Amino acid sequence: MGLAGAWWILDPFFHLLQQCRALPHLLRSSCLFGSDPSSNLPKGGILQYLCDRFYDIENVLAWREKQKYSKIERQNRYHGHLKEYCGDDIVAVNFTLYNGGGVRFKGQEKWLRPNKRGKYSKDFLVLRDVLVEAIDLSGSVVSYDGLDNLVFLTGLKSLDLSRCPNIDDWSLSRLHVFKDSLEELLLTGCPRVTERGLACLHQLECLRHLDISNLPSIANKGLILILLEEMLPQCKVVGMDYGDGVALDPGAQMSGDEMEEPSIPSRDRKAGEIPA
Amino acid sequence: MIQPGRLCRALGPLLTRPLLGPGRRLHISHPQRRDLFSDLDKELAKFQKKLKESLPASDWNPMGITKGLPPEHADVVIVGGGVMGWSVAYWLKALETQRNALRVIVVERDPTYSQASTVLSVGGIRQQFSLPENIQMSLYSAYFLRTINEHLGILNQPPIDIHFNHSGYLFLASEDRAAMLEENVHIQRDHGASVSLLSPAQLKKKYPWMNTDGVAVASYGLENEGWFDPWSLLNAFRNKAMAMGVCQYFGEVKSFSVASKTMCTEKGDVNFSRISSLQVQMPNSLESQPVVCALVVNAAGPWSGELAKRAGLGMGSQGTLESVFLPVEPRKRYVYVWHCPDGPGLECPMLIDTTGAYFRRDGLGGNYLGGCSPAEDEEPHIQDLEVDHDFFQEKVWPKLAHRVPVFESLKVKSAWAGYYDYNTFDQNAVLGQTPLLENMYFITGFSGHGLQQSPAAGKAVAELILNGRFMSIDLNNFSFNRLLFHEQVLESNIV
C-alpha cells in the first residue's frame, strides 16, 4: 500500500516537473500572460526554437542556406572552355541555352531555344563568327557572375532580363559594356532592382526601349519615370505611369484634367498615403 | 475637570460601534491592501518577470554586480567600436580555426556614436587611387559589399540592404595634373578596376549641366564605385560578430599596464614593451575594470594616436626609435546638404573638382551634399563638431558654382561635421604591429578613405593576428615600421 500510495502522490509532481521545463517557452509564447500578440508560437515552429538553442541545428540550417548560393553559382559559371575554339559569342549562346533562355543571331528571325526538357542541339557551334543580336534570359537564375558570359558581346541589341530573381543593382552596373550597341532592355518584374541600379543605365547611350513595369522594390514610381526620361532623352521608357505612387484623395477636385488611374483600387486607398 | 460633552464625543465612535472581541484590529478607514484580482494583468506581468529572473540563464545576481562590466580576462581587446573595430571582430571570428578559439571583446567609449567617424561619413567607395594596395583593398571591399548577405547574413533575419548607389566617382583634372591622372588610371586598370578616361567634349555631351572650363581630362569609375549607407554596414558587422560570440562593452580605456624588457646595445638601451592589461572606465562612473589581455587592436580612429600615447608609444627620448609616436590625429571636415531644383539628375556621379571640392546627389528630391578639404594652414579647431557655415560661402560654393552653373542658386538645408583619422605622416593607413609595443595592432590612419576599405583592412589585420602574416592582400607597405625608417608611402588621390 505504501509504495503504490507514494507513486500516486508523486505523479502530479512529475507532471509538474515536465511542465516546468517547458515553462520558459510557454511564458514567451503564451497569450495567457498578456504578452504582445506578435510573439506567439515562434516562426518556423519547432525548428526555429531548436535552431536558437543548439549550434548543430544552426549549422545544418546555415549549410542549407549556403547550398542555395552554391547552386546559383554553379548555374552561373563561366563557360570558358568554348572561348578558345569558338569565340565569345558562342560562349554567350551556350550559357543562355544552358539556363533555358533564347538566342537570336544577327540577320535571322528565328529564336534558338532549348526544348521543353531543357535539351538543345549543339549545331550553333559552327556559327563562330556570327554576332548575337538578342538574348532572352527571362525567368532564369542569371546573376552578377553569370553576366561574365555576356559582357564580351559586341553586337548585342536586345537583352531581356524579365522576372530574374537574382538580377540586382550590381548586375545592372555591369551593363555599361553594351553602351555602343544595346537598344532594348527589359527589366519587368525583377524583384531586386531599385532606382539606384536604374541610375547607372545612363551609360547606355544607344538605348531606345526600356521596360520597367512591375518593379516592386521601387517606391515613387512616377518620379523615377520622370527622372529616367530626363536621363535618357532618346529612350522610350514603358511600364510606369506618371501617376504611379501618387495616391489621390477621392474627394479632391482637380480642374479639368484627366488623372491617371492610381495603381491601388479605391477601396484600399487611404487619403494621403503613398503606397510602397 | 473633563467635561462630559467632550468625553462623550471622544468616546462616541467607540460607544456607537458594537463591542469588538479580543484580538480584532480596529479599522478606521477602507483597507489599503492591493487587491490581487482587480489588477490581474499587471500582477501577472510582474510575477512573470520575477519568475524569469529566478530561472537559469538570467543575469540576476544577489550581490548586485555592475551591468556591462568587461570580463577580467580576454584574448583580444578591440578598442573602438566603429566600422574598423567591428570589421576586425567579425573577421577574427570568421577566420578562426575552431569555434570560440579566441575570446574577443570590443570596447567602445560612446554608446550613442555621436562623434564616430563611421556614421558621420559621406559613405563613398572608389577604386581610383594611385597606390596598388589601396586599389586592391577597395576592390575587395566592393566584392564584400556585393556579397554582403553571404558573409554577414544571419539565419532567419531579413537580408541586409546597404543602399548602394552605383553612380561612380568622376575625377576632374586640370592641365598640370592630367598626366598623373592618366598614369593613375593605367595603374588602376592593371589591378582590375574599370575606369574610363573622358575628354572635355565627351564630358559636355554626357553631363550637359557641367562647365568644362579648366578641365583637361576626367576619369570615371564604371563599376564598383558609388556610395552607400555606413550605419547599415556598421550594424551588419556588429550583429554578425555578436552572433558569432564577440561581446560589446561600453567604457573608455584609460590606462595600460605595460611590461618591458630592455635590450642593451652599444648605441644605447632599447625597451621592448608588451601590454599586460588595460583599465576600462565605465561610462558616467568612476568604476573601472582591469582587463588582462593578450592582444590589443587599436581601432580608435581619430583618437588612436592618443590611445597609443597612453600605452607609452612614442614617449622615449628625442632622437631614439622610442620617440616615434603614432601620427594619427583628428581633423574636422564639414559636409553641407543643399537643395537645388534644377540640378543634375539621376546620372550625377560623385564629382571631385580640380580644386578639391566634391559633391554628390542625395536621394531623388534634388538634394545634394558635398564639401571641400581645407588647406593645411586653415584646419578648423577640433574641440567640437560645430559647423562653420562661412566656410561653405567662401570656399565651397564658389568652386561648385563655377563647375555647375545651376548651383549659383541653391539653398543650404543642413550641415554636419565629422573627424578624419588623419595620418599626418603620409595620409595612408597604418596596419600591423611595431616591435616596440609588440601586442598592439594598429588599424587606423585612413585619412578619409577608411570606410570603403574597412572589410579588406579588417580581414588583413585578422589574418595578421591568426596567421602572423598577410594572406590575401599584401599590405606590408602600410606597416608601422615605415614611420620608424621615415619612408613615406604617399597617395596622390586624397579627397
UniProtKB/TrEMBL annotation, chain A:
Q: What is this protein called?
A: Distal membrane-arm assembly complex protein 2
Functional summary from the UniProt entry: Required for the assembly of the mitochondrial NADH:ubiquinone oxidoreductase complex (complex I). Involved in the assembly of the distal region of complex I.
SUPFAM superfamilies named in the record: RNI-like
Q: Which residues form the signal peptide?
A: 1-22
Q: Which organism is it from?
A: Pelusios castaneus
- Domain F-box/LRR-repeat protein 15-like leucin rich repeat per the UniProt entry, residue ranges: 133-227
User: Is the keyword Signal in the record?
Assistant: yes
Indicate the quaternary assembly.
Interacts with incompletely assembled mitochondrial NADH:ubiquinone oxidoreductase complex (complex I).
Automatic annotation (TrEMBL), chain B:
Q: How does the record say this protein sits in the membrane?
A: Single-pass membrane protein
- Hydrolase found in the keyword field: no
Which Gene3D superfamilies does the record cross-reference, listed alphabetically?
D-Amino Acid Oxidase, subunit A, domain 2, FAD/NAD(P)-binding domain
- Localized where? Mitochondrion inner membrane
A single Gene Ontology MF term assigned here is: oxidoreductase activity
Q: InterPro entries attached here? A: FAD-dep_OxRdtase, FAD/NAD-bd_sf
Q: What do the Gene Ontology cellular component annotations say?
A: mitochondrial inner membrane
Keyword annotations for this protein, in alphabetical order, are: Electron transport, FAD, Flavoprotein, Membrane, Mitochondrion, Mitochondrion inner membrane, Oxidoreductase, Respiratory chain, Transmembrane, Transmembrane helix, Transport
State its role: Required for the assembly of the mitochondrial membrane respiratory chain NADH dehydrogenase (Complex I). Involved in mid-late stages of complex I assembly.
Q: Name the species this protein comes from.
A: Pelusios castaneus (West African mud turtle)
Coarse class of the primary localization is mitochondrion
**Which protein, by its recorded name, is this?**
FAD-dependent oxidoreductase domain-containing protein 1
The Gene Ontology biological process annotation of the record reads: mitochondrial respiratory chain complex I assembly
Which cofactors does the annotated protein need, by name? FAD
Q: Any idea where the FAD dependent oxidoreductase domain is? A: 75-464
